[in-house]
C-alpha cells in the first residue's frame, strides 16, 4: 500500500517523484538564508548587518519563489496534491516532526527567553539575531529591533513568499488568488508597516494592528493600552473607538453578509499564515467526531475565559464613584450582563430550533459566564478578584492562551496537528464569529444536488477538520461554526459539488436527507414521513 | 425476533440500503464482503495511489459507526446462495441464514480473452486489491518503466492520471477513433483527446490490443498492437475496457440472471425475499433511455435507498429522476444533466448546440428537440453547473433558448471565476441567425 511509512530523509517522496535540479538549488538558497540567521544567533560579526539581513531574507524568499515556479509552472493548471501524503514533511513523517520541534522551540524562546535571541535589556544594545534586524527596524521606525519585530518580519516574509507559492498552486482559481492577495496585503500593510509608521507619527501610541480585533487582540482593553490611547488625544480616542466598533458593529455586519471567512481567511494574520505557510499541513487536521467534540468544549471555554478576563481587567481600573466618571464598576458589570443576556434570550427565542441539542451547552456557557461575573462583583475587592491579585487572571490568559496555545501549539505544531489548531480549538474571536455564522449569516457551502461520490477529497483538505463529505454525500449544505471559508474543499472536489455562497437565509440549512436524484414523488413521500 | 437482512457487498449500494433499513427499522442487518473490512469510496482509490489521501480517508464513516448503528460486518467470500433454505455458504464452510437477501456485489473488470491477460502485472482498476497490485508493480518509474492501458473509458483515463502522477510513461490504447466517443459528442471527445496528449500521455486512437507477452517469470514483458503488430515494452498493463456484473457465484442458485441479476422495478429477483441493487442488477425493461445495467455511483445509491423502503414495508419502485452524471478527465471536470447523445446512437429528433472556449479546456453541448426546441440535456466541461436548476428545467420542459438565456442561473463555479454566459449566448444567437 502507498500509505507506507516513509523512513527516508528525503523531503520529496515517493521515490518516484524526485525534486528537480532547479528545486534543489532553490532549496539550498533558502537553507543558506536560514543559515545566515543561525550564524547571527551565535553572534557572528557580519561586516554589514543590513547587507546580510537583506541577503538572508532575499535568499529565503527567492528560494521559495524559484522552488514554487518550478513545482507549478512546469505543469498544466489544476489540483496539485500529488504525493502530499507520501512526503515526510506533510504526513507527520520524520521531517514533519523535526520541523515541528524546531518551530516549537523557536516559539518558546521567542515568548519566554528573548534574551537568547539577543534582545538587549535595560538599554543594552541588541546582539545576535535581533541585532541582525536592527537596520530594518531603524529604517522603518528609527528604533532598534525587538524580538517582536524579528518575529513580525519573519512572519510577514513567510506569508508573502508562501502566499506567492499558493497563488501559483491555484493559478486556475480566482477565489484562491484574490483571497491570498488579501491576506498578503493585510499582513504587510496592517500588521507590519502601519504600526511602525504609527509609531513614527506618535511614539506614545500603543502598538495597534488595526485588523486584530478583540478578543483575538486580548490586550487592547488593558489599562495600559486604554490609557495609552486616551492620553493621545483624538487619534488615540479614534483608535479605541474603532477597536470597540470592530467587534460590536463591523464584525457582525460583515459576518452576516459573508460569513466568518471575511476575517478568518481574508484578513486575519493567524489565518494568513495558516493559509500560506501552513497550506502543506492542512490535511493533517483530525476529522474524527471526537476531535469535533473536543473542539466545541475547548474553544467555547476559551471564549468564556476571555470574556470574563477582559471584563475583570476593565473592572479593576474603573472606580466606584459615578461623580468621577459615569462608567463605574456597577454600571459596567450591569452593562456586560445585560448585553450577554440580550444575546442569550434573543438566540433562545429566535434560533432555538436551529441550535437543537447545542442549546443546552449554550445555556451552560451563558450561565457559567454570568455566575463568574457576579461572583467577581460581589467577592472582589480593590486589588483582588476571584481571591487573587487582579493581574493574575490576565497574566494567566496571556501565558496559557495568548502565548502557549496560539503560538507554541497553534503554529509550532503545524506539521502535527495541521495548520489551524489554534483557529479551531482556541481562538475566542473564531468562536464569536462562528456562533454568528451558524445562526445569523448568509454564508453557506452549497452542495450540488446528488453529484457527490463520497471520495473524501473535501474532508481531507479541510484545515478546520470538518467532515465535509458527511454533509455533501447526503445532499446537505454545510453550515458549520468553524468553517473559515477557505474554499479548498470546493477547489479539490472532482465532481463540482461544493460552492461557497452568500445567499438568502431561507433554506440555508437543509437537514432533511433527500433521495438524491430519485424521482420527485418519491422525495415527497420520504419527506412527509 | 427481528428479521435478518443479509447484504452481500459493502459498496455504496449495499451500505446505503443498510443505513436506510436501520433508519426505518430495528431489523438485524449483516453486510458480507470479501474485499475490505469497512465501506470505502471506490471512486477515490485513485487518490490513494496519487498521494492525495490515505486509504482510511476513503472511508466515509468512522469505524465505530457500524457497531453504533448495529450493522454487523462479516469479512468473508460468499461461495453460493441456497435459496431454498435461505442461507449463504461462505468460503471456509460457515453458513449464514437470512430472512431477506440483498445482492449488491457490484462489478468486475472486463477481460476479452486476450492472450496473456492473466499474467503478473496485468490488472484492472476496480477493487482495493487492484490498487495494492498497482502499488506493487508500479511503485515508481524505475520499477515500472512504462505502463499500457487498454480501454478508453472513465477508469482508463483515471488510471492514466494515476500513473502520470508518479511520472510513469503511459501508452493509452483506445479502440474507438476518439476518446469515449460512444458517449461524448465528437467535439467534446476531441477536446479531451488533446487534453490527454497535453499531459504527455501517449494516446493511441483506433488501436486494439492483440496480445500481452510474458517474460520468463510469468510477468508482463510487452504488448502487441493488433493493427500494426508493433510491440510496446511495458511492466504494467491496465485492463479498463468496461466492467460487468460480478455474479459468477450466483449461477447455481436458481436466481434468474442475464448479464446481471434480473430484477423488476421493485428490485426484486424471481425469488421471493431476494433482491439485487447497484451495478450487478439488470432491469427486465430499461427505464426511459437508461441502460438496463447502470454501473454508476448515484444509481447504486438510489437503488439502495429505494430498496430500504420496500424492505421496511413501504413498497417503493425504483423510479430514477432525470439522468445526471459527472467525471473528471485529468484537469477537466465534466457534468451532464438530461440526455446528450454521441454521434453514434443519436436519435433523429436531437439537435445540438456546441460552444467551446478558446483555451480548449471548457465547452458545453446543449441537446434539444429539433422541431419542438424542447431542451433535452447538457454536457458541460470546465464549467460547473447546478444540478437542481437543470433538474427543474428538465421537469418544466423548458425550450433551448430559455436555457441558453438563463444559463447564468445554473452556474456553480466558485466566486470570482470568469463567466461565459454572454459569450455562449452570442454564439447561440449567431448560429441561429445564419442557420
UniProtKB/TrEMBL annotation, chain A:
Domain 4Fe-4S ferredoxin-type as annotated: residue spans: 443-471, 474-503
GO cellular component: plasma membrane
NAD listed as a keyword: no
Gene3D superfamilies assigned to the protein according to its UniProt record, in alphabetical order: 3.30.70.20
TM annotation in the entry: 25-42, 48-67, 94-113, 148-168, 180-201, 235-256, 297-318, 330-349, 361-379, 399-417
Keywords on record: 4Fe-4S, Electron transport, Iron, Iron-sulfur, Membrane, Metal-binding, Transmembrane, Transmembrane helix, Transport
Alphabetical list of InterPro entries matching this protein: 4Fe4S_Fe-S-bd, 4Fe4S_Fe_S_CS, Electron_Trans/Redox
Domain of life: Bacteria
Molecular function in Gene Ontology: 4 iron, 4 sulfur cluster binding; metal ion binding
Protein name as it appears in the record: 4Fe-4S ferredoxin-type domain-containing protein
Automatic annotation (TrEMBL), chain B:
Domain of life: Bacteria
Matches recorded under InterPro entries: FAD-bd_OxRdtase, FAD/NAD-bd_sf, FAD/NAD-binding_dom
Keyword Cell inner membrane: no
An example Gene Ontology molecular-function term: oxidoreductase activity
Gene3D superfamilies named among the record's database cross-references: FAD/NAD(P)-binding domain (3.50.50.60)
Residue ranges constituting the FAD/NAD(P)-binding domain according to the UniProt record: 4-289
Keywords: FAD, Flavoprotein
A Pfam family of this chain: Pyr_redox_2
Cofactor(s) of this protein: FAD
SUPFAM superfamilies: FAD/NAD(P)-binding domain
Family label: Belongs to the FAD-dependent oxidoreductase family.
Name recorded for this polypeptide: FAD-dependent oxidoreductase
Organism: Algibacter mikhailovii
Amino acid at each position: 500500500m502507498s500509505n507506507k511509512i516513509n523512513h527516508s530523509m528525503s523531503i520529496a517522496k515517493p521515490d518516484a517523484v524526485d525534486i528537480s535540479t532547479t528545486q534543489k538549488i532553490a532549496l539550498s538558497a533558502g537553507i543558506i538564508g536560514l543559515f545566515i540567521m543561525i550564524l547571527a544567533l551565535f553572534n557572528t560579526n557580519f561586516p554589514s548587518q543590513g547587507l546580510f539581513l537583506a541577503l538572508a531574507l532575499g535568499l529565503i524568499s527567492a528560494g521559495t519563489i524559484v522552488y514554487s515556479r518550478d513545482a507549478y509552472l512546469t505543469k498544466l493548471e489544476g489540483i496539485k496534491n500529488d504525493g502530499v501524503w507520501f512526503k515526510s514533511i506533510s504526513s507527520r513523517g520524520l521531517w514533519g516532526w523535526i520541523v515541528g520541534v524546531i518551530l516549537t522551540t523557536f516559539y518558546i524562546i521567542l515568548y519566554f527567553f528573548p534574551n537568547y535571541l539577543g534582545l538587549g535589556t535595560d538599554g543594552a544594545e541588541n546582539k545576535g539575531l535581533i541585532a541582525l534586524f536592527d537596520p530594518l527596524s531603524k529604517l522603518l521606525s528609527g528604533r532598534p529591533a525587538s524580538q517582536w519585530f524579528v518575529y513580525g518580519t519573519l512572519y510577514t516574509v513567510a506569508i508573502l513568499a508562501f502566499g506567492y507559492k499558493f497563488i501559483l498552486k491555484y493559478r486556475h482559481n480566482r477565489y484562491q488568488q484574490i483571497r491570498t492577495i488579501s491576506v498578503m496585503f493585510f499582513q504587510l500593510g496592517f500588521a507590519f508597516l502601519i504600526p511602525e509608521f504609527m509609531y513614527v507619527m506618535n511614539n506614545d501610541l500603543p502598538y495597534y494592528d488595526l485588523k486584530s480585533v478583540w478578543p483575538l487582540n486580548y490586550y487592547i482593553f488593558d489599562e495600559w493600552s486604554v490609557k495609552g490611547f486616551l492620553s493621545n488625544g483624538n487619534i488615540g480616542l479614534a483608535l479605541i473607538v474603532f477597536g470597540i466598533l470592530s467587534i460590536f458593529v463591523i464584525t457582525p455586519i460583515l459576518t452576516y453578509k459573508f460569513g466568518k471567512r471575511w476575517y478568518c481567511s481574508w484578513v486575519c494574520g493567524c489565518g494568513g499564515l495558516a493559509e500560506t505557510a501552513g497550506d502543506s499541513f492542512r490535511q493533517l487536521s483530525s476529522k474524527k467526531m471526537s476531535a469535533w467534540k473536543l473542539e466545541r468544549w475547548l474553544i467555547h471555554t476559551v471564549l468564556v475565559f476571555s470574556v470574563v478576563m477582559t471584563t475583570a481587567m476593565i473592572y479593576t481600573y474603573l472606580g466606584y464613584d459615578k461623580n468621577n466618571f459615569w462608567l463605574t464598576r456597577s454600571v459596567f458589570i450591569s452593562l456586560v450582563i445585560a448585553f450577554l443576556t440580550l444575546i442569550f434570550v434573543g438566540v433562545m427565542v429566535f434560533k432555538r430550533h436551529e441550535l437543537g441539542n447545542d442549546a443546552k451547552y449554550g445555556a451552560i456557557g451563558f450561565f457559567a459566564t454570568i455566575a463568574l461575573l457576579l461572583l467577581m462583583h460581589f467577592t472582589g475587592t480593590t486589588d483582588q478578584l476571584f481571591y487573587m491579585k487582579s493581574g493574575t487572571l490576565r497574566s494567566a490568559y496571556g501565558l496559557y492562551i495568548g502565548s502557549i496555545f496560539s503560538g507554541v501549539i497553534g503554529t509550532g505544531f503545524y506539521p502535527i496537528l495541521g495548520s489551524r489548531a489554534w483557529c479551531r480549538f482556541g481562538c475566542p474571536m473564531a468562536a464569536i464569529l462562528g456562533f454568528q455564522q451558524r445562526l445569523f449569516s448568509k454564508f453557506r457551502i452549497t452542495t450540488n444536488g446528488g453529484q457527490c461520490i463520497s471520495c473524501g477529497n473535501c474532508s481531507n483538505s479541510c484545515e478546520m477538520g470538518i467532515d465535509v463529505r458527511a454533509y455533501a454525500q447526503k445532499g446537505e449544505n454545510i453550515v458549520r461554526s468553524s468553517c473559515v471559508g477557505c474554499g479548498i474543499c470546493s477547489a479539490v472536489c472532482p465532481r463540482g459539488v461544493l460552492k461557497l455562497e452568500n445567499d438568502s437565509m431561507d433554506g440555508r440549512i437543509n437537514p432533511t436527507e433527500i433521495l438524491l436524484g430519485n424521482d420527485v414523488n418519491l422525495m415527497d413521500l420520504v419527506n412527509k414521513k | 425476533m427481528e428479521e435478518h437482512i443479509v447484504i452481500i457487498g459493502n459498496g455504496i449500494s449495499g451500505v446505503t440500503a443498510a443505513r436506510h433499513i436501520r433508519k426505518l427499522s430495528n431489523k438485524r442487518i449483516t453486510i458480507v464482503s470479501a474485499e475490505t473490512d469497512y465501506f470505502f469510496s471506490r471512486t477515490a482509490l485513485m487518490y490513494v495511489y496519487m498521494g492525495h489521501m490515505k486509504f482510511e480517508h476513503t472511508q466515509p464513516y468512522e469505524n465505530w459507526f457500524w457497531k453504533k448503528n448495529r450493522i454487523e460486518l462479516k469479512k468473508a467470500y460468499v461461495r453460493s446462495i441456497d435459496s431454498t433454505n435461505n442461507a449463504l455458504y461462505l468460503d471456509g464452510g460457515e453458513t449464514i441464514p437470512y430472512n431477506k437477501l440483498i445482492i449488491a456485489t457490484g462489478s468486475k473488470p472486463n477481460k476479452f480473452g486476450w492472450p496473456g491477460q492473466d499474467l503478473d502485472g496485468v490488472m484492472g482498476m476496480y477493487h482495493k486489491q487492484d490498487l495494492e497490485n498497482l502499488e506493487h508493480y508500479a511503485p515508481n518509474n524505475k520499477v515500472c518503466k512504462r505502463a499500457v492501458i487498454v480501454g478508453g473509458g472513465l477508469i482508463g483515463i483515471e488510471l492514466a492520471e494515476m500513473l502520470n502522477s508518479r511520472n510513469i510513461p503511459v501508452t493509452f490504447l483506445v479502440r474507438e477513433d476518439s476518446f469515449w466517443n460512444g458517449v461524448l459528442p465528437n467535439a467534446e471527445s476531441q477536446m479531451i483527446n488533446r487534453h490527454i496528449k497535453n499531459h504527455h500521455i501517449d494516446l493511441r486512437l483506433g488501436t486494439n490490443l492483440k496480445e500481452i507477452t510474458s517474460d520468463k517469470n510469468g510477468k508482463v514483458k510487452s504488448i502487441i498492437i493488433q493493427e500494426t503488430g508493433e510491440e510496446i515494452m511495458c511492466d504494467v498493463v491496465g485492463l479498463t475496457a468496461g466492467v460487468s456484473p460480478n455474479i459468477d457465484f450466483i449461477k447455481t442458485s436458481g436466481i434468474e440472471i442475464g448479464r446481471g441479476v434480473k430484477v423488476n422495478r421493485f428490485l426484486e429477483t424471481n425469488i421471493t425475499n431476494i433482491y439485487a441493487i447497484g451495478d450487478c442488477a439488470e432491469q427486465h425493461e430499461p427505464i426511459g433511455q437508461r441502460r438496463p445495467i447502470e454501473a454508476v455511483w448515484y444509481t447504486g445509491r438510489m437503488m439502495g435507498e429505494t430498496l430500504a423502503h420496500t424492505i421496511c414495508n413501504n413498497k417503493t419502485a425504483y423510479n430514477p429522476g432525470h439522468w445526471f452524471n459527472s467525471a473528471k478527465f485529468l484537469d477537466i471536470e465534466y457534468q451532464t444533466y438530461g440526455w446528450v447523445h454521441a454521434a453514434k446512437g443519436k436519435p433523429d429528433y436531437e439537435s445540438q448546440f456546441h460552444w467551446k472556449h478558446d483555451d480548449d479546456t471548457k465547452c458545453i453541448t446543449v441537446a434539444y428537440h429539433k422541431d419542438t426546441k424542447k431542451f433535452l440535456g447538457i454536457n458541460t466541461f470546465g464549467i460547473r453547473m447546478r444540478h437542481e436548476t437543470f433538474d427543474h428545467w428538465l421537469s418544466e420542459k423548458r425550450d433551448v433558448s430559455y436555457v441558453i438565456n438563463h444559463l447564468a442561473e445554473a452556474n456553480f463555479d466558485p466566486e470570482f471565476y470568469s463567466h461565459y454566459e454572454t459569450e455562449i449566448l452570442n454564439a447561440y444567437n449567431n448560429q441561429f441567425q445564419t442557420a
